[in-house]
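User: Hey, my collaborator sent me this sequence without any context and asked if I could get a structure. I don't really work with proteins. Can you help?
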Amino acid sequence: MSEQDQTQQTEVDNDAQGDAGTRVARPTWAEIDLDALAANFHAVRRRVGSEVKVMAVVKADAYGHGAAGCARRLAAEGADWFGVALPEEGFELRAAGIKQPILCLEGFWEGQAGALVKQQLTPVVYRLDMAEAFDAAARAAGVVADVHVKIDTGMGRLGVRHEAAAEFARALKRFTRLRVDGLMTHFASADEAARDAFTEEQAARFRAAREAFHAAGHAPTFVDMANSAATFAHPSTRGNMVRPGGVLYGLWRDVLRPEDNLPEFRPVMNVRSRIILLKWIGAGETLGYGCTFTATRPTLVATIPIGYHDGYARALSNRGRVVVRGRFAPVVGRISMDLTLLDVTDVPGVEHGDQVTLVGADGELSVPAEDLARIAGTISYEITCGISARVPRRFIEEGEGGKGKGER
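Assistant: No problem. I've predicted the 3D structure and written it out in structure-token form, which is a compact way to encode the shape of the chain:
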């Protein structure tokens, strides 16, 4: 880079900095309440008791909440294991300082076995070629490495078919550098009371597979079946380790069955922005792409810098609502890639720069992710997972006074 180019780049960098040297950014962010995360974790811990291990599932960037920050807090609170989907996610946790055992729920990809052994990540295996590759990597490293075996009892995605469990268990015995330290399955409909018979059938198939593994000479330390829904609705399926995911992040209304004794799970994510423009339009004027909103009265319109690329779903156009100054305000017009319009006519004293809460709580009002999911025709997990990487996560803990401890 030439001296002139370096000078120009320095000027650009300086322009992008705030008074204290912190980077100035678009006023759109997601607050991650780590105290709420901890409270939700302990609610699960109390329910399952001290004899059952808790694997905190932090796949998909902790359901959009920021895996490293969430995992560090959960580790401090006593999480026994962490569950990720991909080895890549496990590597990131190790780089973030996580020491607890990590289970890679989707297994691993060709060429990754050696890295898993080195990083002490435990893969789920469900094919013999995977077991062979991992055995070879363990042999090369001079260790005996742990794996968990997944049994497909009716979900139909990953896993050894339950009818083939005995044959698979016998075949694994030739891999002398592997130890089957865990046996697991996944329920398809543990949250649906109408399908309890199928959940019970899945559990029975799993028990038969477990017996087959014991008969073949395997002695898994961990037996785990229960996701968030099964942890609460089917206590008999907890085994000696449960795998809560959504409930840790306060996503439960569309995950758990309504029960009188459910814990008070607290939402962990609050997505916020600020008003960048206010303007009046007259009755009969339209807004947004396709002119899908027509004002029936003089209307005060607020523009906020968040759109569907940020994960604020386009399906919420003319249907969603936000919180501004202690009032609900509707979304009007189509949500754009980067901008959203609000009708703030009925919000007294509204001003440029006012905070807007799109997901989560603001004072006594809230916009639960589950409500947005229902409007958009999806589940709450997709709402939080969909908040994109260009929305910075600010991790909030007690004593922070409403300011983020850090951004990702």
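In plain terms: The domain at 33-249 is CATH 3.20.20.10 (TIM Barrel). You can pass these tokens on to your collaborator as they are.
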